[in-house]
Amino acid sequence: MVQAIVTDIEGTTSSLSFVKEVLFPYSASHLRDFLHTHGQEPPVRRLLDEARQLDGDAREDEQLVNTLLRWIREDRKFGALKGLQGLLWEEGYRRGDFLGHVYEDAARRLREWHGRGIRLYVYSSGSVQAQVSLFRHTAFGDLTPLFHGYFDTRVGGKKEAASYEAIRRELGLPPADILFLSDVREELDAASSAGLRTGCLARGEGPPVDPGPHPVARSFDDVSL
Ligand SMILES: CSCCC(=O)C(=O)COP(=O)(O)O
Ligand SMILES: [Mg+2]
Q: Where is this region: Disordered (predicted)?
């Protein structure tokens, strides 16, 4: 019996285009201003130091900014970049520059599953801060009360079975009682290797999704527990 659902964001609860055409460009165009205003604050400094360690060449501030901008263009999933984006996007949400996109079927079924006592979690490459901000500011209101917890790449990469084993341990449930939802075959394969149930979202946005052996759903309405 499914007791917990762990969901990906981009391509699963939320559209690819929101992430690629709203969030990423926003972080690129606001990065310099954000660092100018907040660059001396301890959480930001820690993330900048972490980014500097990943790119030994980026000793000067300008070089580091250029490295971060390149990582955004290349969609790199480094924790330091994701942490900075999360802080920067939170400002954007609070200013009302955009809302977190969540598909209607996802918002509705997440509410239904929560009402049935199923524990809901998010696992995304976006930082925990970015995940919370997205679900707090949606067209369907604040969805954060629905979630028990959030995981980002601090628990490990999304294509590694060990990450799902760590999540399972944290949830304290048998793996077969946990359903992982994603639009990326390699993530589903990794979750399945750790013994989790899987569901592949193929929403028809962007390049065709390869479901492999995983049950396919065109929306959360098709997800069977
Ligand atoms: C938390 S919204 C931003 C998502 C993001 O930064 C990203 O890289 C997409 O990651 P996902 O694991 O949700 O596909
Ligand atoms: Mg995804």
A: 201-225
